[in-house]
Amino acid sequence: MDRDRTDLGKIFLVFLRIGAFAYGGVYSMLGFFERELVGKRGWISGEDFTEGVAIGQLTPGAPIVNTALFIGYRLRRLKGALASFLGLVLPSFVMVLFISFLYVRYRDAAPVRGALKGVSAAVAGMIASVVLNMGRRVVKGRTDAMFAVAGFLGLLLLRVNPVVLILAAGTGGLLVYGRIKNVRPGRS
Amino acid sequence: MAFLKFLWTLFYINLFTIGGGYVMIPLLEKQLVEHYHWLTGREFVDSVAVGQITPGPLTIMNAFIGYKLFGFWGSLAAVVSSYLPSVVIVTIVSHYYLQYKSSRAVSSAFRGISPAVAGLLAAVTITLGGTAITDAPTLAIALGSFALLGARKASPTLVIIGAGILGALLM
Prior knowledge:
Chain A is mainly α. Chain A has helices at 8-21, 26-40, 46-58, 63-106, 110-138, 142-156, 162-177. Chain B has 171 residues and is mainly α. Chain B is 84% helix and 0% strand. Chains A and B meet through α1, α2, α3, α4 and α5 of A and α1, α2, α3, α4 and α5 of B.
């Protein structure tokens, strides 16, 4: 189909839908993207979609936002990127405003405090589970484990700024793996 | 001044972190809670929770933090400064995406960054856990959420909402 003719309003509305209903982690949200854009509308090919996912994860910022920007750009260049971005972010922004308003007013009411305590504890558990899943995925050998331990100790004990730690880890990766031909075996 | 510092903090954290909201949590916590003392540890954990119970990106939690600190305009400005780096960079990268993706330098740097990020996040789990887990019920909820989500079977949104209801009833 002719890419340059995709209606900007339609791009906005489709991403608005995705933005309002895409709950969960990055992967489940990408499921929404694929159903809406590749399956239902055929706006982009499955291959372009996969590239968009990779780009979303390799560029700075929130991967889901970046993937939306990439797809919007493919459809209608900068205008398309802005339409998809606004559509994706608007529903959660409105919801956050609503919650913020309630939070600032009622945070000291007893049931709200209890609810927040419960939610905070669940968030701590949730992040621990992310560590577990992420660790399983990326820590495969002794060198990986060394990078992970260095990050852990650098932040917890030495209080090094995380941006510095991430840049250092990137440099370390370049030094250790920069000369190896196939960095991630079996990836492509 | 604090307003501009806040926006700049969000801007550069979004500019420097690759991999999404969870990667940003250590950086946000360090700057907003420990460095500037704009939020207490508890308020920060609340922000993460708000990011999690709303659809879309976790980083929308920055809008919540903006509202908490500076009201509606703070919230809107937080969204703009959080996503501006993405808009600019992704637009440029979309042009050249194939070369960028298959570059060996990029993939070897990430081979180092990914495990380090897991380590950063483990450190943050300990810091946040110390704030959020204060007694037996909060410990039970934290362990329950870890078990439900660690096994990848439950929806994070449902777990968070369930924990909120439990908290309101029990505490």
